[in-house]
Amino acid sequence: MKSQDIRKAYLQFFESKGHLIVPSAPIVLKDDPTLMFNNSGMAQFKEYFLGNATPKSNRITDTQKCLRVSGKHNDLEDVGFDTYHHTMFEMLGNWSFGDYFKKEAIPWAWEFLTEVLQLDKDRLYVSVFEGNEAENVSFDQEAFDIWKQFVSEDRIILGNKKDNFWEMGDQGPCGPCSEIHIDLRTDAERAAISGFSLVNADHPQVVEIWNNVFMEFNRKADGSLEKLPAQHVDTGMGFERLCMAMQNVTSNYDTDVFTPLIEKVEQITGLKYTSNEVKNISEEQNKTNIAIRVVVDHVRAVAFAIADGQLPSNTGAGYVIRRILRRAIRYGFTFLGTKEPFINQLVAVLADQMGEFFPEIKKQQALVTNVIREEEASFLRTLDQGLQLLDNVIATTEGKEVAGTKAFELYDTFGFPIDLTALILRERGFSLDEAGFDKAMQEQKSRSRAASEVSTDDWKILVDGNVEIFVGYDQTENEVKITRIRKVDSKKDGVLYQIVLDATPFYPEGGGQVGDKGTLVSANETIEIIDTKKENNLILHFTKKLPENVNASFVAKVNTDLRAATSKNHSATHLMHQALRSILGTHVEQKGSLVNPKNLRFDFSHFSKVTDEELQQVEDFVNARIQEQLPLIERRSIPIQQALDEGAMALFGEKYGDNVRAIKFGDSMELCGGIHVNNSADIWSFKIVSEGAVAAGIRRIEAITGDGVRQFFASQEELLDEIKTALKNPQDTVKAVVSLQEDNAKLKKQLEALLKEKAKNMKAELANELQEVNGVQFLAKQVDLNAEGAKDLAYELGNLGNNLFLVLATAEEGKPMLSCYISKELVAEKNLNAGQVVRELGKFIQGGGGGQPFFATAGGKNAAGIPEALSKAIDFVK
Question: Where in the cell is it found (predicted)?
Fold first, then answer.
C-alpha cells in the first residue's frame, strides 16, 4: 500500500466515524509564545483543550506536519543513526473535544489497523497506564477492560508514567495514554524473544505506531493535577512508522516516503544506499547510509519550514532551521563528497511526492529551492574558512591534543561542526580535548538557559467561563473587568503580571503588528499596560504590578498616539504589497512583516534587486492611493472561500478559520486581523528608506509614514544645510560637490604616481639589503609606503631574479599590513606558500589574510607586533 493511499485511508476512515477532516496547521507557529514549531498533532488544538475556544466540530481528523528539534522533544542528534527518528514527521490524528472517550477510541484504533489495513494481530501489543500513587492517579482499569475484548492479557503491557502518561509541557492538559506497538521482526526472531519484552525498549523493529491520549487532567504550576471540565481524546499515529509496517520493511527509510529522495541523492553523488535488509555492511557503507538518511530527513524539515514562511536566520526558529540544514550539508560534505550545493535539487522530488496533500510545497517550490541553494553555498564557504582556521589552530598547538576551548570557538563563532573538527584532527594525528569542549558547551548552555528561564504561575480565575472578547476594532477605551491573572518571572524581564480582561480594546501582537500599550484606570489607581500578546486564544495584558483591587471596575485605555502611528504603517504595508505585485509582478508574495509606530518592514519574494526606478514607482503608487482618499472597507466575518473568490490575498504559513476578516482599500484586499486607518488619506505620506536582500529570492523594504516622513525630510534638510556650511555656502551645492570630487580624483592620481616613483627609487636601496639564506635572496623590512606601494615595490624587486623571498610591512595611519612575495620558482622548488606565511606572521599583528602562493597580504590591528613578525620571517627559509 503506497504512502499516499495509507494517508487517504486513515482520513476517510475517521470521516466515516463523523470526524471533520481539517488541513495541517503550518509547521512554524508564529503566534504561540510557548512553542517555536508544531511538535505534535495536538499543538494547533491547545486552545480547545484548555477551554479557551470552541472547535468547529467536536470530532476532527487530520495529518499534521510536526518538527521536533528543540526543547523537551528533541530528536535531532538521533536522526540518521537509527531508522525511525525524524526531525519532521507526519502525525495522523483523530480528536474528540468533550465528545467520545475510551470506549470509542480504542475499538476504532483496532478496527482501522486490523480490518482496514489488515495488519497481523499477532504482531500487535498494547499498553495501558499502570497508575501512579504519588500523582493519585489510579490504574486505567477501563482501558484495560476494553482491550481485553480484542487481545489476550499477555499482550497488554502496564506502562509507567514515563511511557503511558502524556503531557504537553510542564503545565497544561495531560492524561493517561494507551499505545499500540508492532513487532516487525522475522518469525525466527519473534520465536526466540517475545515482543512483549521489547516494547518501549528502543528496539528498531518493535515500535509504537498509535497513541490514544485520554486528556482528563490539567497540570498546575505546583505540579499537582486537577480534573479538566471535560474529557478529550488526542490520538497520534506516526505516519512514517505505519508506512514501514504496511510496506513490509524494517526501516522508515525503506518506505516510499523516503525512497524517491534517496534515489535522487544516489543519482547526484554516484553512491549507493543499502536498505535495512542488508546485513554485515562495511563501516564505510554505514557512514554513507547515515549521511544519506540525514540529508533526506533534513531536507523535508527545512523545505516545509521555508514554505510555511520561516527563513533560515541566526535567531529563534530561523536558527533551528539553519542548524538542521547545516547538519545535512556537513554530512554530505564529509561522507558523500559533495563540495557543491546539491540538497536544493531534492525539493522538486519532495514537491512531486507531497504536493497533493500539502500544496504549499508545490506553490513555494522555486522559493524553497533558491533559499536552500543559497544557504548551502554560504555554509560551504564557511566550511572552507573553518578548514583554514583549523589549520592555524593545529599549527599553534603544542603537543598532539587540541584544546577544547579552541574547538568550541570554531564551533560557536564560525559555525564549524565539532564532529568535523574531531574527524580532521584524527586524520592529522591529533586528538581533541573533548572534556574541555563539553565544559565550554555546557557553560554556554547554562548561560543561555539562565537567560531564558521562565516560571509561570497558574491562572487565578476571577470570572468563570469564556467571557473574554476583543472590542478594539471599534473602541480604544472601554469599561472592563479583570477575568484572570497570573505572575510570570523571567531572567530577561523580571517579574511581570499577565491580566486578561472581559472586553479589551487592546490589540494583541500578531500578523506582524506589535501589541498595543496603554493604561488600566480605576477610581484609585492607574496601571500601565506595557505590551499585549495572545496565547491559546487569550489576550494577555502585561504589567509590572497588579491593581490593589483586582475585582474593581476599570477603564482600559489604549495609547492612541502609538495605535494611530502603527495603523498608518499597517495600511501602508497593504498598499505597498499591491504596488509591488503591480510593478514587479504577481510572483511577489509577502514573506514576513513588522509593523510598529516608528516604521514598517516588509519581506517579499522577488528574484532580483529592486531598482531605484522600481522603488520610485512603488513609492509613487502608494502615495497616489493616499491622495485618492480611499475609505477602509472592513468585513469582519466573511467565509474564507468567498473572500478568496473576491480576490483577497491570503498568506502562506498563516492559520485561517472558516470565517475571516477582510481589509480593502480600493483594489487592495487582504485577509488581516490588524488595526488600520479609516481612510488612506490618514497615512499622509509614504517613503521607502531601504531595500535589500534577506535570503535567496527574498527582499526586504523598510519604509515610514506620517510623522516619520515629516521627521525624515526635516533631517534631510538639516543635513543639506550642514553640507552647504562645510562647502562655504556655494550658490550651486551639487556643482560644488562635483568639483570637490574631481579635485580629489586628480590629487589621488598624483599621489599614486608619486608613490610608484618612490617605490622605484627604493628598489635600488633595498636590492642592496638582500641577504642570501640557504640559497634564497631574503629580505624582511618595514617600508614607508601604503599597501599598494608595497605591492608595486615587491613586484619590482621580484624582477631582479628567480629566488626572492620578501616580506614587507607597512603601517599607514597605524594600520599594520604584511605583504609577502615569493618567486614562482621557489614556490615550486621549496614548497613555499605566501598565503601560509602571512597567515602565520599575521598573528603577531593580531590579524590574518591570504592570497596566492607567490603573493599574499595580511592586515591586522597591532602595529607594535611588526618587528616580531619581521624577525620570524627568516624561519621560513632557514
Answer: Cytoplasm
Q: b/e per residue, 537-574, with b = 16+ CB within 10 A?
A: ebbbbbbeeebeebeeebebbbbeebbbbbbbbbbbbb
Buried b (16+ CB within 10 A) or exposed e, 787-797: eebbbbbbebb
**Paired sense of beta strands 401-402 and 431-432, if any:** parallel
* Strand 494-501 to 600-605 pairing: unpaired
Query: CA–CA separation, 110 vs 124, rounded Å?
Result: 10
Q: What angle do CA 281, 286, 290 make, to 5 degrees?
A: 150
* Alpha-carbon span 854 to 826, nearest angstrom: 9
Which cell goes with 392?
A: 592555524
pLDDT of residue 397: 87
pLDDT surpasses 60 at 74 = no
Average of pLDDT values for 238-254?
A: 94
- Residue 44's pLDDT band, with cuts at 50, 70 and 90, is confident
Q: E strands of 715-851, at which residues?
A: 771-773, 776-782, 804-812, 815-822, 848-851
Between CA 803 and CA 132 the distance in angstroms is: 83
- Give pLDDT, residue 486: 95
pLDDT tens per residue across span 729-740 = 898 989 999 999
The rounded distance, in Å, linking the Cα atoms of 756 and 708 is 51
- Examine the pLDDT at 420 and tell me if it is beyond 90: no
**Residue-by-residue DSSP string for 595-632:** E-SS-EEEEEE-SSPPPHHHHHHHHHHHHHHHHTTPBP
CA torsion sign for 468, 472, 477, 478 is negative
CA distance linking residue 594 with residue 743, whole number of Å: 45
Type and span of the H or E element at 48: helix 46-49
Instruction: Return left, alpha or beta for 415; rule: phi > 0 is left, psi -120 to 50 is alpha, else beta.
Output: left
What pLDDT is stored for residue 33 in this prediction? 65
DSSP code of residue 34: T
For the record, the C-alpha cell of 772 comes out as 642570501
Residue 31 confidence (pLDDT) = 62
Q: What pLDDT shows up at residue 346?
A: 98
Q: Poorest-confidence range of 116-125, 222-231, 628-637, 757-766?
A: 757-766
Per-residue pLDDT, 102: 96
Contact between 27 and 143 under an 8 Å Cβ cutoff? The reply is no
Grid coordinates of 844: 603577531
| Residues 213, 22: Cα–Cα separation, whole Å | 20
- The answer to whether 729 touches 627, Cβ cutoff 8 Å, is no
Read off the pLDDT band of 71 (50, 70, 90): very low
Query: 324 near 76, Cβ under 8 Å?
Result: yes
Per the CB < 8 A criterion, the answer to whether 30 and 654 are in contact is yes
- CA 373-28-588 angle, 5° bins: 55
- Which positions make up the binding site? 570, 574, 672, 676
* Sign of the dihedral through C-alpha 559, 562, 568, 569: negative
Cell output for 45: 488544538
Distance, in Å, from the CA atom of 143 to the CA atom of 226, rounded to the nearest integer, reads 20
How confident is the model at residue 771, as a pLDDT? Answer: 92
The confidence band for 713, taking pLDDT boundaries of 50, 70 and 90, is very high
Q: Where are the beta strands (DSSP E) in 425-474?
A: 431-432, 454-456, 460-461, 469-470
pTM above 0.70, yes or no: yes
Integer Cα distance of 774 and 755 in angstroms: 33
Known binding-site positions for Zn(2+): 570, 574, 672, 676
Whether 695 and 312 have beta carbons less than 8 Å apart is answered as yes
Q: Residue 73's pLDDT is what?
A: 47
| Average of per-residue pLDDT across 491-495 | 86
For residue 67, the cross-strand partners are: 88
